[in-house]
Structures are given as structure tokens and as C-alpha cells.
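Structure ticket #2291
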Amino acid sequence: MRIGLTGVGRIGAFHAATLHSLPAVDELVLYDFNGEQAASVAAELGAQVVDSEDALLAAGLDGLVIATPTPGHAPMLRKAIAARVPTFCEKPVAATLQESIELTRLAEESDTPVHVGFQRRFDAGYQRVRQAVSDGSLGFIHTIRSHTLDQNPPHASYIPTSGGIFRDCNIHDFDIVRFVSGREVATVYATGGNQGAEFFVEAGDYDTGGAMMTLDSGTVVQISSTRYNGQGHDVRTEVFGSNGSMCVGLDDTLAMVSAEEGVDFPKGPVHTNFMERFLPAYKSELTAFFEVAAGRLESPCTVRDAMEAFRIAEACELSRAAGRPIAMSEVATA
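Resolution: structure written out below.
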């Protein structure tokens, strides 16, 4: 397959290397507004470079990967849909809810396949929990706890354009709760705090966030996130049912130390970042995208799925500002 990629920053360069390692990719074509950076990545991987997004779309692609900074997602996705190029787009598909709604409608009116990059859906642990919930082996699900805890904060320049901790970080938790439970969020109550660098406050963001949600089934969901989990990178989801409980991320890499005497679990080493933690899932989701692009698989994560996760993040921001629970019926939808 001839695959194009726009954006070779941190996640883009990571995707480029992953694409290069997959047998299905015969040719890789890159574009980035920083031509020197694109040329550097291309030289390392033996890829081709073009000088514009339009040239990329005209390069006879079998599929396109969008990995630009968030403000570039929506414009490029519109172009790709118009050009009828099957597209994999990193989350979020847009920087605002209204634009996400518009793109949902556009994608659903088109027959161009779009797959949105929520890689946790392709993690083996999350897939096992989803199966256990759907087949009823856990009984009724009364509680879900989901954590996204970064070891270190990103660079200060990233935060003002990130969309905030709920849209940038916890949006993965919101998506995976929908994926695992098969249910929709009904209400949200969210808050946040800052004890770290001032650049979070200056950007109107938080370095630590938390939300309590209820699903339309009555399940209680607890969400937490931080940019300062010094013990290591910790992504974990716990699902508690009337017949049993399961946890994703409960292995020797768990970034936690037991306070109990004589307990040597977890043994480590811990993960330090999300790319290391989810490398197999990233490979699986891009492999699935090739099946989507070839017309052999329906999109496993649609633009509507991305919009629903963004709606939950929007509800968190509304709740944080208003200091009260927000019903999802108060948040616009497509």
C-alpha cells in the first residue's frame, strides 16, 4: 500500500516509524510544514517527501494518516474526504465541539472511510474486558475507574493548544469507557487542581483532573488524570461487576509501590510514556486501518465515536466552570 502521512512531530514521527515497520506498507509519502523535519524523518525511513498537503493528496495514496497538531486535523480531514482518500486521523478530529459535529455529519454523508486514532481500543487487555462485560461474565457493572497518569508534563508550549486536560488527556478514558461498557454517559461532574508549573494556570488548564460520571445503565464511573505521576506512566481501567472484577494495566509495569510488608509486586520496570505503553496497540490500529482503507473492514472508531468522546470532555469543562453536574442532554450533538 502507498500511505501518506501529514505531520511528523512527536506522534507523527512515531507513526511514520510504525508504518515503515508494517509489511503492508510498500511506500510512505510524508509532508510537514517544517520541510527540514520531514526530510530528516524521510531520510531515516527511506520515504518520499512532498511540499504541500495538496501534493500529498494527489500522490496516488491508498490511505492517509493525519498526525498534525490538533488545529490541522479538521481542515485536512475535509480535504481527504473530498478527495475520497481513506483516512486515519489522530484524536481529536477537531479543536471544538461544533466543528466535531460538522465533521460527523460530513463523514456520515460520504462513503470515504475515516478511522479515528483511539489506540486503547486495540490493546489486548481492553479488548478482554470489553468481551467480559459484553458476555455477562462479570454480571452487572456497577463501577468503573479509569486513570491516565503521565509521569512528566509536556512542554509548556504544548498546553495552550492542547484543549485542556479533559479534551487532551481524559478523552481517551471517555472513549474507552464507552467502548468497554457499550453504554453512553448520562451525567458528568468534574473538577481540577494545580500544584505544579505555572504554565498550566496561565493557559487556563489544570495539571490534575477528576470526574464522576453516571452511565445510562446506572454504572458509576470515576475518572482521574495528572501530568505529575512521578512513579511512572500509569494507564489503568478497573471494572467492577456483581460477579467479578477485572483491571487493565495491572501487571509488573504498574507505576505504584505497595505499602504492605513483604509484597514485592509490581516488580517493574514501569512505562515512562504512552508510546511505549501502547506500541502493540498502535501497530494493531494502523493494521486495522489498512483493512478499512481496502474496504474489508468497517471503521472500528468513527468520527461519531470521536465526537461523543469530545462531548463528554465538553461536559467536563462546563461542569468545572459551573461547579455543578452536567447532563449530557445539555451538550450539543449531531
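Closing remark: The longest helix spans residues 303-322.
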